[in-house]
Design brief:
Blueprint (H helix, E strand, L loop, with lengths): L5 E2 L9 H5 L5 E3 L4 E3 L12 H5 L5 E2 L18 H10 L13 H11 L12 E5 L2 H20 L9 H10 L11 E7 L6 H18 L3 E5 H9 L4 H4 L7 E9 L23
Antiparallel strand pairs: 1-4, 2-3, 5-6, 6-8, 7-8
Helix pairs in contact: 4-7, 5-6, 5-8
Amino acid sequence: MDMRFTVNQELCSQCGACIDDCPFHIIEMAPDFPALNPTRAHHCIGCQHCLAVCPTGALSILGRRPEDSLPLPQSLPSSAQMTALIKGRRSIRRFLPEPLPAEVIDTMIATVANGPTGKNNRQCLFTVIEHPASMEVFRRETIEGLRRAVAEKRLHEELSYFRHVVSAWDKGQDIIFRNAPHLLMVSVPPAITTPDADSIIAMSYFELLAVSMGIGTLWNAMIRWALATIDVNLYQRLGIPDDHVRGYALLFGWPAVQYHRSVQRDEALINRVRLA
């Protein structure tokens, strides 16, 4: 890893915050200003905590400039805004046909790439269908694969619902894809520390960001079940490596429905622990 670790000595207050906050203790005072410990620098995971914690913006690592970061905490949403975002998000099952601009999708994925991953591995592969024509091909190939599974009686009892999916499709109803113009899947190599959690976190962040932008989303387990049932490897068609741990699919696009208030379901199952 090319560390490109620099300290602007005119700005550095020698507070030691970067030293104290480094998860792997690779920074030391040497002697008057922070520097990398050459015997520990190889433990760096690229978390950039040192850049983020520096109060004067004196420190740069991995070639990242402090002035290119968002200032905190003033850039953060309020707790009331976050509460409204979480309570106000809805699963969207009615989408407009118009696709999102490609640059909007790129910005969303670049933003979500900042989300946490185990040991900062950052190995999430974001597979996205941007073009409605490609989405239509994927939809059709999935349904036709299910149609063959139904005809050949290959559906297990718990997947018998797909018979109704195929018949509904023939009547013009898209039960699985809900006519959404876009699809996102996040997959992760199996050798990293937390593949399942990494993909779920990435998609959860994407969903909340989408809601804040007026974009609708739908978590979709049916697509995952369908792709595991049909006789064609559509994961390969999508360019997802065979050895990747595959998460759920997330449909997204401009919603064709508007909600005017949050629902009320604050009842949580809480296990309060007190240990003597």
